[in-house]
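Recall that a protein's primary structure is simply its ordered list of amino acids. Everything else, from secondary elements to tertiary packing, is in principle encoded there. The following example makes that idea concrete.
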Amino acid sequence: MVEYEPVIGLEVHAELQTQSKMFCACPVVDSTSAAPNSATCEICTGMPGTLPVINVRAVEYGLRVALALHATPAERSSFARKNYFYPDLPKGYQISQYELPLAEGGWLEIELPGGVRRVRIRRVHLEEDTGKLFHRDGYSLIDYNRSGVALLEIVSEPDLRSLEEVKAYATELRSLLRTLGVNSGDMEKGVIRFEANISLRPAGTSALGTRTEIKNLNSFRSMLRAVAFEMDRQSGLLRSGQRVRQETVGWNETTGETFSQRGKEEAHDYRYFAEPDLPPLRIEASQLESLRASLPELPSERRARWKREYGLTPAAAAVLGAEPADAAYFEAAVRSAPQVSPQHLAHWMAGEMYGLLRTSGQSLDVCRVTPHGLAELVALIDSGRVTAASGKAVLAEMFASGDSAAVIVTRSGVQVVDDAAEVARLVQQVLESHPEQLEQYLSGKTSIRQWFFGQVMRLAGGQASPVRVQQALQDALRSAENHHAGL
């Protein structure tokens, strides 16, 4: 049986977080909550006689992304009219970039269990977003608030070969956009959308198969389900001797299936021609250098530094570095307590802290546990003053009340019993209360020592220092052995 290999490329459309739209002064508003058609003007609604003007900040944001992706910005780029009927673009065309995009080439590295892979970038270009259609009771309504919002399209080469790679690429790109401050990454609001181009070919061959394009996927879950379905659908066609039709398909989240929308267009179908109302876009070398110098530490660079300086595992670095706010929280916690192990901090943040956030539905930016507060708790645990088990309860109380770890430990009395004399007394009490088990130990059943340890910890309410208990237990049992031998 022929084994097929998927060949996948992603087109990512990201709304840029500018204050005004791409070609007019209308404010950019939340399209999910603002009153319909409340942020519109003659330009973004396509009235005759109006002239577009390029948003300088959108160009700067696009260049920041291009530079972060190691792409080569064009010294001269241009806008074109993409002639295609969009019901939610009243001009009847979309202003986009085609022959001369903002930047070309570049790459994005993704981390996989087998190592780091480099996914090539084909192009980065600017365009305007469309409006939104609402279908109700047999009628279609249009909200133009989103029409004309600055949109950045990032097109990858068809370098992805599995669902795992698709997810890693999309996740890394979203994290990059958020770190650069050019996109919120809020997929529920449609500010970042994916389109996947998929084809299959016999494994081991290099020729490309016939591809289909899945449009407007606005969540990782939808994207992965849609890509998986399309891979299975194409595989079924090829195995049965049928041909895959080149087409654009949509995704039905309810049925879990793709559906045909139209035959896949080529560039000539859109009848691109130069936008006569916009001059060529020229970028000065000094502007590029200034933007390059202003780039923040990128997610991949941050993960590498954390592994090098803090000794974090690749998994821990990936989890804590996925969101800019989380990365900043972790860095602040590390800085506030130099004596605390960064690995231990990462363990508590990625484990217990994230668990509380998931359960409560809160985000880290409104959490009552400050970075310093988390570091203080981990310091108490590292020093042995609080056990790990008690630490979980203390963190839960910090999360609910906002009180510090020190206050909660004092109030609840969960501080570890570390006094040598008190621990020795507890050990002696356990041994005297269980003479039968002590006799078994002295007769050679040394495995029962761990049982004694558990009894001492239970008697101490879990608050005795494990190290101190082990030492006191060793001393007491050695004394009992000597006494037994003397008899």
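The chain has a mean pLDDT of 90. The chain has three domains: 4-291, 297-412, 420-486.
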